[in-house]
């Protein structure tokens, strides 16, 4: 399947990069979701991850893999491995030293997936955690992880307009926990996760956006992956799923709560490789 069209929404086949949670664990706390004193069920995380990978394949998408490495328990969050647009990859520079060991392996892997080359960043950015392409533009989060200078760097390296958005709620520390790209001109977001300037900017750019409830965002409902028609999201985000149906999308709810223990969800585990 390359594309399907029903109900007006058209799916486009995607290419994703994922990392098996073989060594997933919560050994440090760098966001409010992480509690190193509560044991993690790694087998359960792997089973949920395998089901997600199989679902992407059933939907007609290509899933590339990166080898997980011991000692890097957050490596499963592949969205933080880079940003690939137009075949060109921007590498990452993590805010927290605990994750910096992931930078080189992701750079090496992206070098083989991005024919346009890989750029090593000078400023802190956490890949698709904070950079979300929408059509020709890129939305960029800051406030907790990626720094504003990295937004300018991304615009320069990738040759796309970048809109900076400041996040204000520590639970929604990456842009992909507070905003979901549904299509080339449509997003969904939690307004309360952004400062006033960002809210104004989003209202101007996307007057038709879906505004999602705090309850749905708190189960990582916005940490979802859309192919333009199917939206793979947390099964617990029922209100958001209903809104998606109204807009002609096909929501597919999945159980992905074990990785929430590290502060991530479906989108965090998925890096899109854009040709
Ligand atoms: N434990 C990871 C961190 O705090 C979770 C990353 C989630 N990734 C994402 N794209 N939101 O860095």
Automatic annotation (TrEMBL):
It comes from the Bacteria. Pfam families: DDAH_eukar. GO terms for biological process: L-arginine deiminase pathway. One of its GO terms (molecular function) is arginine deiminase activity. This is Amidinotransferase. It comes from Frankia alni (strain DSM 45986 / CECT 9034 / ACN14a).
